[in-house]
Design brief:
Elements: H1 2-18, E1 24-29, E2 32-34, H2 41-48, E3 51-57, E4 60-65, E5 70-76, E6 81-86, E7 93-96, E8 104-116, E9 119-128, E10 131-142, H3 156-163, E11 165-174, E12 177-179
Length: 180
């Protein structure tokens, strides 16, 4: 009987401790290299923001940037909409997150590639119509992928369904810019 209770308590501890998804804040430092003629890297970084604060809870997320143009994005899971706020408008623009103008052509998962803030991170490389996207993640920042099954926009579900986690670092390469 004592062994059964110990086993039950151990199982509950493991489920409670290791089964939790990440809710909280991740801060990204962004550096852009602009590929648009007559726009410098510094101008593009200033417009998009050199810092991004990302908050996630219960399938909703928001991203706040210090950009002079790009200010924030808010994803409302119950609506499956992504709202974007730009400084040149009082109105939030929204995208149907069920749609995605991009397409992932190939996935590549590389284990234990880099250490970020003390976390040993895997690398997920998405080869897309738009370019290459690299995400570095650790399973300790786990997300509930079921909450994002309809969030196709920006290849979001492709990312979380393969990583099951939030990225600690990302590198985006497309025709307009490189982001690291």
């Amino acid at each position: 009987m004592k062994k059964t209770i110990t086993l039950l308590l151990s199982t509950l501890f493991v489920i409670t401790f290791f089964g939790q998804t990440f809710e909280g804040k991740v801060v990204y430092k962004n550096a852009y290299k602009c590929k648009i003629p007559n726009v410098t890297d510094e101008q593009f970084t200033s417009m998009m923001g050199s810092t991004q604060e990302y908050f996630i809870k219960n399938g909703d997320y928001k991203s706040l940037a210090n950009g002079t143009l790009f200010q924030s994005q808010h994803y409302i899971n119950s609506e499956n909409k992504l709202y974007t706020k730009m400084s040149n408008s009082d109105t939030y623009l929204w995208n149907d997150a069920a749609t995605n103008p991009d397409e992932v052509i190939k996935f590549e998962l590389n284990k234990g590639v880099i250490e970020i803030l003390g976390y040993k991170c895997d690398e997920l490389v998405l080869t897309c119509k738009s370019g290459i996207q690299k995400y570095y993640f650790n399973s300790k920042l786990m997300v509930d992928t079921k909450l994002f099954v309809n969030h196709k926009f920006g290849n979001w579900y492709d990312l979380v369904s393969k990583s099951n986690a939030l990225p600690l670092k990302l590198i985006i390469e497309n025709t307009q810019f490189s982001l690291e």
